[in-house]
Amino acid sequence: MVAQAVHAQEQTNQVTPIPYDVFFNTAAELALLREKRIISAEQLLTIMREEKDFFLVDVRDKADYESQHIKGAINIPLSSLIMKDVQKIIPDKKMKIIVYCKNALEINPTREAGLSMQAFPVFYQLGYENLHELASYSVSNLENLPFIETEEAKSQRCDQIYFNKSPECYSACMEYKNRVPPDCPNRCSDEKVQFMSNCMDKAS
Fold it and tell me: Strand runs (DSSP E) across the chain, as ranges?
């Protein structure tokens, strides 16, 4: 009897093999879908102006969200996305959802796979199929979208915009940031000071 019970328990504990062909096919389909669902800052602004029924979701952690986020976005960190009862926040599975992460707020990539790229299939598997993702590494995001942000985050954003507009002067300013030799590029320094002042005022 004991042997039969042990054998029955072993059968119960057996793990069903993962059908990798199905997994990879699904992953490939999601990758193609995601490519079609990437939207620009301009498209997001149009949605924000013309539509009411959508959720803009920042999937970074709470500290990053509180430091800077796109106006109107809610925070559902990727780290708690599976555990969190998303349906309580977004009960309608047909609701349009736009996800973004740090990569959408930078011009130069800092990681190959952003959090929003990882969040896309998670939301999809939870049944949210009207899913979109804000494009990454676009200066248009930083220049045109409305932000709720700290002064430090605002300064960093303006700094990135300046880097995109004047890469040569930006590099020169960084090179001479901590030393002032006779050949310091004053034109670039003055240019950056003026740009940063105007950008900070505009962002206020």
Answer: 38-39, 54-58, 68-70, 74-75, 96-100, 131-134, 147-149
CA distances to 18, 73, 89, 165, 184 from 66, rounded to whole Å, are 40, 11, 19, 27, 37
Who's near 77: CB < 8 A, 6+ residues apart? 59, 60, 61, 62, 65
Q: pTM of this prediction?
A: 0.77
Beta-bridge partners for 178: none
CA 196 from centre of chain: 24
Residue in 98, 104, 176, 173 with CA at minimum distance from that of residue 145? 104
pLDDT tens figures, 77-112? 998 887 667 888 999 999 999 999 999 998 865 555
* Beta-carbon count within 10 A of 54 CB: 16
Taken in order 46, 148, 93, 137, the sign of the CA dihedral is positive
Query: What's the chain's Rg over C-alpha atoms?
Result: 23
3-state helix, strand, coil in the chain (%, to 5): 55, 10, 30
Tokens of residue 151, six digits: 């002064």
